[in-house]
Design brief:
Length: about 270
């Protein structure tokens, strides 16, 4: 479950954002293109490029939330975007091992209290939710609306109507739809109690307060059960191959980690 940062390449994009070093691995762009192309239907070139732009901005904002919380607790951080999504890693931008996910915080050198760990983990999804709120506010300010609706299988969603000069602008509608989809639903998925997602790290911190070793084992069992359930629902109910592959691989990865933690015996979950 502890993955290393991707090695540097000659094609990395490097810049600074609010004082945080940011590095974008070239496979990040490939991952974005594949997700956009395989997102259902037959998206046109503009929709795919819009999707890549949206996940770049959204994951960067998510990781910036983590990094700002690291700074709040007196530690520097740097951000890496790569094929798994994003990392916010404590310390300078020298490569090191870190918790990893399509959007996750990393904990490395400095010891934080459980409460600080939880705040660092939650700061990423929270940044995305706040950004989505600004997008919705912008839609309303233009004379449009965002209405809650009940989607397929009673899953809540939204119906966007652009107003004013933006009414009927398909390209802008696609942009708004993608921004809400990524910053809301990816944020919710990230809060599932599955390692190494932010929700998995929060669950672990809550469980190890009184029982460090047993709490870790229980958190891993919870992660395995939830990841397997989400993979099954994604396959049998939603027919989403991406969800099956992602959460199925997380279930296997967590089981292997559990074997290492418990010395091969699997431990007692509760």
């Amino acid at each position: 479950m502890i993955l290393a940062e991707p090695q540097r390449t000659a094609y990395d994009l490097n810049f600074q954002l609010l004082g945080f070093p940011v590095r974008i691995h070239p496979l990040f762009w490939l991952m974005g293109f594949l997700l956009g192309y395989g997102g259902g239907g037959q998206p046109d070139g503009f929709a795919i490029l819009t999707w890549v732009l949206v996940i770049f901005v959204s994951i960067l904002i998510h990781e910036l939330g983590h990094a700002l919380m690291f700074r709040r607790f007196g530690e520097a951080a740097h951000i890496v975007l790569y094929w798994m999504g994003g990392l916010a890693v404590p310390g300078d931008d020298a490569p090191r091992s870190s918790w990893s996910s399509f959007s996750s915080s990393g904990f490395g050198r400095r010891s934080h209290t459980p409460g600080q760990h939880i705040l660092i983990s939650f700061a990423g999804p929270a940044a995305g939710f706040i950004f989505a709120a600004f997008v919705i506010a912008g839609v309303f300010a233009s004379g449009g609306s965002v209405k809650p609706v009940m989607g397929r299988f009673y899953i809540p969603g939204w119906e966007v109507e652009l107003g004013g000069a933006m009414e009927g602008n398909r390209n802008l509608f696609v942009l708004v739809h993608y921004l809400l989809q990524v910053n809301i639903w990816w944020g919710v998925m990230n809060l599932l109690p599955v390692f190494p997602l932010d929700g998995g790290q929060i669950a672990q911190q809550l469980m190890i307060v009184n029982d460090p070793w047993g709490g870790t084992v229980r958190a891993l069992w919870l992660s395995i059960i939830v990841a397997a359930a989400v993979a099954a629902i994604g396959g049998f109910v939603f027919r989403e191959l991406f969800i099956v592959i992602m959460f199925g691989s997380l279930a296997v990865s967590n089981y292997l980690t559990l074997q290492q933690v418990s010395g091969g015996g699997g431990g007692r979950p509760w």
